């Protein structure tokens, strides 16, 4: 089911909307697009309550990548921060966002691309009984709400936490 008035594209005037995510043929990094979509939803559907149920970034599954390197994913943390920042701007401008869920907790099987992309906050070792190891992003995501509370108490500026 889709919106008949929607055109799905990754370009505007022949230029990509943002960089392509590693390991995916169809995901492009465009956090301001999420903000624009939230404003559209507010206008078109008279300010509904919005729950963002899937928002994530991939990396390519690379069998040669060492585990210690696979666990370092600052690009994922930065991507989450950028999207949360644009969600925050939309909320400040009256969009009723009630929830946000990162996709996905674990590296998983994607219907369109199989096991090639890795979305997870946890690394899944497909060769070792699906052993799960938290990536940098999992540790960061766990501490993020606490960091925000401290930042709100200690600062009147709106700076994004650094990785």
TrEMBL record:
It holds the Pfam family Glyco_hydro_1. Gene3D superfamilies: Glycosidases. This is Beta-glucosidase. One of its GO terms (molecular function) is beta-glucosidase activity. InterPro entries: GH, Glyco_hydro_1. PANTHER family: BETA-GLUCOSIDASE 9-RELATED, GLYCOSYL HYDROLASE. It comes from Quillaja saponaria (Soap bark tree). GO terms for biological process: carbohydrate metabolic process. Belongs to the glycosyl hydrolase 1 family.
């Amino acid at each position: 089911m889709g919106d008949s008035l929607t055109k799905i594209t990754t370009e505007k005037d022949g230029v990509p909307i943002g960089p392509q995510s590693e390991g995916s043929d169809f995901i492009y990094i465009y956090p301001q697009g999420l903000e624009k979509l939230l404003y559209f939803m507010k206008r078109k559907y008279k300010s509904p309550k919005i729950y963002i149920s899937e928002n994530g970034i991939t990396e390519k599954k690379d069998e040669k990548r060492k585990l210690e390197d696979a666990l370092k994913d600052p690009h994922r943390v930065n991507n989450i921060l950028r999207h949360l920042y644009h969600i925050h701007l939309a909320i400040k401008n009256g969009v009723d966002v009630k929830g946000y869920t990162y996709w996905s907790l674990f590296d998983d099987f994607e219907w369109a691309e199989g096991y090639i992309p890795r979305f997870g906050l946890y690394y899944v070792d497909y060769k070792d009984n699906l052993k799960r190891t938290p990536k940098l992003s999992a540790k960061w995501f766990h501490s993020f709400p606490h960091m925000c509370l401290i930042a709100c108490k200690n600062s009147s500026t709106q700076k994004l936490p650094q990785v």
